[in-house]
Write a structure and sequence with these properties.
The protein has 369 residues and is an alpha+beta fold. The chain contains nine helices and 18 strands.
Length: 369
């Protein structure tokens, strides 16, 4: 299922924003305009499907740190993220744990940075008509089962996580299970390790790796997997496009995979530990975008980090080519990268700006208070 629309409200700098999403979406804007907040909102949905919502929010500082900090109407403090996916629409609404002294049994807990899922909704879409498939309020949820009957969720829900991660009977609730599988298969890349101790700089025990790890730790195995069962010629072209005359080689004595880069004029290949941060990061991007198992949705956050400007054009071409097989989302500071993507794909970037502290699409008016 492809994303056709993203809706975010009350999340960091995003007071209220609705954004159409196409096969290739490029988000640009100055520092602090909210690019990463949109990327993170999508990441939160995937985390919710995996049962990691509380952990991911904790890594951002907890619910109090992620809520919209500007002025608001007098109503419950919440953040909401929703997506439309072909014939399904899903919405997740989160708020802080009630303060001590409330009626909730957890109100005096020390885990006061945890999220509390206030509401969740899942709809099926047919034309302009929406039919409710799931409706949750706090610990109770009602769903449509496989026969179309309205039934209550079989267990009391934990308020810190989504219904999806607590799904016990996927055969009874196939559309909810389908949504969970879809969101869990999304891929996000925002931090490739390139420091001297990064795992990909040293020999690693490897297995066939059609999907690169989020931090690139299994880079050598992932590249060798592309060579053996993926688009080997495409990899060769992409490496040569970025580093003319160069080629990658993977060696695996005793099953420990090591990466080497052959370059013109050098009498020996450079080992991964000798590569610059930018070169190593670019090879990680190659492995992610040339995956032999393309995902339905792949998001890159600031892929230009550490890259030499000469690498932005090859990266743009690679991203556009990958969008033929996966829905691609890119947030970037690099105007040259956005320009290459636009020229090759015909897709103009979405430009963000700030108005009264709120993230808005350039040219659109800020939402009313």
């Amino acid at each position: 299922m492809a994303i056709t629309q993203l809706e975010v409200a009350g999340y960091r700098s995003v007071r209220s924003l609705v954004l159409p999403v196409g096969p290739l979406t490029v988000i640009v804007g100055p520092n602090g305009s909210g690019k990463t907040n949109l990327y993170r909102s999508l990441f939160l949905l995937s985390a919710a499907a995996e049962g990691r919502l509380a952990q991911v929010l904790a890594e951002e500082g907890g619910v109090p740190s992620v809520l919209w900090a500007g002025s608001r109407e007098k109503k419950p403090v919440r953040m909401t993220v929703g997506v439309t996916l072909d014939d399904l629409a899903y919405e997740l609404s989160i708020g802080p744990v009630p303060p001590a002294g409330g009626k909730d049994e957890f109100s005096s807990s020390l885990f006061n940075l945890d999220p509390e899922v206030k509401e969740e909704h899942l709809w099926s879409i047919e034309g302009k008509r929406r039919a409710v498939l799931m409706e949750r309020k706090n610990r109770t949820a009602f769903l449509r089962d496989s026969e179309g009957n309205r039934t209550s969720f079989p267990v009391q829900l934990w308020e810190g996580e989504s219904v999806m991660s607590q799904l016990a009977e996927p055969h009874r609730f196939p559309r909810l299970s389908e949504l969970q599988r879809t969101l869990r298969m999304w891929r996000f890349y925002h931090h490739f390790r390139t420091d001297p101790e990064a795992p990909q700089r040293s020999p690693q025990v490897g297995v066939r790796t059609p999907v690169l790890a989020h931090d690139g730790r299994d880079l050598a195995a992932a590249l060798q997997t592309i060579i053996e069962i993926g688009d080997e010629k495409g990899l060769e072209r992409a490496v040569s496009d970025a580093f003319p005359g160069s080629r990658v080689e993977v060696q695996a004595p005793q099953g420990r995979f090591s990466l080497f880069l052959h370059q013109p004029g050098l009498l020996r290949p450079l080992a991964a530990r000798e590569l610059s941060d930018g070169t190593l990061r670019y090879l990680c991007l190659l492995a992610a975008l040339l995956s032999p198992r393309p995902p339905a949705f792949l998001a890159l956050n600031e892929p230009e980090t550490s890259l030499h400007p000469d690498l932005l054009a090859p990266l743009g071409r690679l991203i556009v080519d990958a969008s033929l097989h996966s829905q691609i989302w890119v947030t970037t500071h690099a105007e040259p990268l956005a320009r290459v993507i636009a020229e090759r794909s015909g897709v103009e970037p979405v430009r963000l700006t700030k108005e009264l502290g709120a993230t808005v699409v350039e040219g659109n008016e800020a939402p009313e208070e």
